[in-house]
Amino acid sequence: MVALDNISIPVQLVSGSYIIPVCTKRVWDMLKGCKSNAEHEKVCGMLLEGVPLPLYDCRLLVQVYVSGMEQLREETGLIIPYYKTEKSPNDVKYTIYTELDKLVSDYANINLYEVDDIPITEYWLILRDAFIYRLSQTEKGREYLKNAYRLTQTEADEDIDIRE
Questions:
Q1: 123-142 pLDDT per residue, tens
Q2: Which residue from 28, 36, 60, 141 could staple onto 120, CB 3.0 to 4.6 Å apart?
Q3: How many CB atoms lie within 10 A of CB 107?
């Protein structure tokens, strides 16, 4: 199991150094959508539990924290297996906004509204596992996972027998 407890991101700002713990999915979604000064200040207040920062530090905090969390996600292997495929025609003309949250909710057996309150690292872990589990239930899904895995490998297979 991936160790997801006591994770924090060190952040050096103009106003000082901070150690910021992993945020919830709700805060993560806000971080990823920050556009205005007010949104940056609100999110910084949530991450630092009310510690006021100047706007330039708020903007820097959001950038550094998001970058650190994305690096952590990659290092811990919490990324969903993916590779580009030829898209099949889709008759549905609507976007489903909560599809991934529903996947997490069903897999973890929690209420859809509770998903926003779990730490983002746990969300990523459950999402990854739920995605793999769901795909592993069909032959086509297993083929997708096999191809996604193959494309992530950088080492040569040592057990290949090459004959002329």
A1: 999 999 999 999 999 999 99
A2: 28
A3: 15
